[in-house]
Design goal:
four-stranded antiparallel beta sheet; three-stranded antiparallel beta sheet
Length: about 100
């Protein structure tokens, strides 16, 4: 009799623990994924088709003219998954890198 009561108590405790863990679990967040970079009309564009959150294109450039000697970067707007972020660097500069920044918010 004591063995049955102990088994029933343990299985009941396991069910309660499973319910508590399931009720408290937070949903999974996935950063934007399946992203691509394109270039058109003197602008760079990023597009992400899966995941959640936001993406933003970042273009770094330098002017190679020794009288100018300036490097900088320009960022596009934050865009949700399924939308496009665009950035247009100033003309005459050499592009150093084009990157997609990803965030949950």
């Amino acid at each position: 009799m004591k063995v049955r009561r102990a088994a029933a108590t343990l299985s009941g405790s396991a069910l309660i623990a499973a319910a508590v863990v399931t009720g408290v679990a937070t949903p999974a967040h996935a950063l934007p994924d399946s992203c691509s970079i394109s270039y058109s009309d003197s602008s760079y564009h990023s597009y992400c088709s899966t995941g959640t959150g936001y993406h933003q294109i970042l273009v770094s450039y330098c002017f190679v003219n020794p009288w100018v000697n300036y490097c900088g970067s320009v960022a596009g707007q934050k865009a949700p998954v399924g939308a496009t972020s665009s950035a247009r660097p100033p003309g005459g500069g050499s592009i150093r890198s084009v990157t997609i920044l990803k965030s949950e918010s």
